[in-house]
Write a structure and sequence with these properties.
Elements (H helix, E strand, L loop, with lengths): L1 H19 L8 E15 L6 E14 L4 E10 L2 E7 L2 E22 L3 E19 L2 E21 L4 E12 L3 E12 L2
Antiparallel strand pairs: 1-2, 1-9, 2-3, 3-5, 4-5, 5-6, 6-7, 7-8, 8-9
Protein name: Opacity protein
Pfam family, one: OMP_b-brl
InterPro entries: Beta-barrel_OMP (IPR027385), OMP/PagP_B-barrel (IPR011250)
């Protein structure tokens, strides 16, 4: 019974999407915002290893052709608290990651549901605020990442869509998975 209900709801939503979506064309400008997850953008409480972290992302895309878009994005991941001991001293730290992403998108499908592949570059910044003996020191490091992934936009109306995206960040030493879920607004 539940399966039939979900199937019927899905068919209705797809039908509405097919009738309300506006054709994608050169010169279209979009903005988006939402949630992001980075599989290695957090730290364990004892700094022993990296772990996943949630955050938010903001972005914009300009279509330079019917099937090609240039996207710029910013992601900020939640601060992670960590404590570790070394040589009898306890060190407290807050660590967070932010990224600036430049992606080239190619749309394989640009009808009702818009599906794209992406290739790009990210500047990944890791910031740590370390406290020891009541003194606090803030330091950051940056790394470059190569991005490869896919995404899809599911229209809710003519100018609003749900945007999903998954990509692999390959940094200098290791790679990790990044997923985004948000809402996209077409401005023109």
């Amino acid at each position: 019974m539940k399966f039939k209900r979900y199937t019927l709801i899905s068919l209705v939503l797809i039908t509405i999407s097919l009738e309300t979506v506006e054709a994608q064309e050169k010169g279209t400008f979009r903005v988006n915002g939402g949630l992001t997850y980075g599989s290695k953008f957090g730290v364990e409480e004892d700094f022993s290893d990296s772990k996943g972290a949630l955050g938010f992302n903001l972005g914009a895309e300009y279509l330079v052709g019917e099937d090609i878009g240039l996207a710029l994005g910013y992601s900020q991941y939640a601060k992670q608290n960590a404590t570790f001991s070394e040589d009898g001293f306890t060190i407290d730290a807050e660590v967070w990651v932010s990224t600036i992403d430049f992606d080239l998108r190619y749309y394989f499908l640009s009808d009702a549901v818009q599906v794209y592949g992406l290739l790009g570059y990210s500047n990944v910044k890791v910031t740590a605020e370390i406290s020891l003996f009541g003194f606090t020191e803030k330091d950051s490091e940056t790394d470059n990442a190569f991005n490869l992934g896919m995404g899809a936009m599911f229209p809710l109306s003519e100018k609003v869509a749900i945007n999903t995206q998954a990509k692999w960040h390959k940094m200098s030493e290791e790679g990790h998975f990044v997923a985004n879920l948000g809402i996209m607004f077409q401005l023109n």
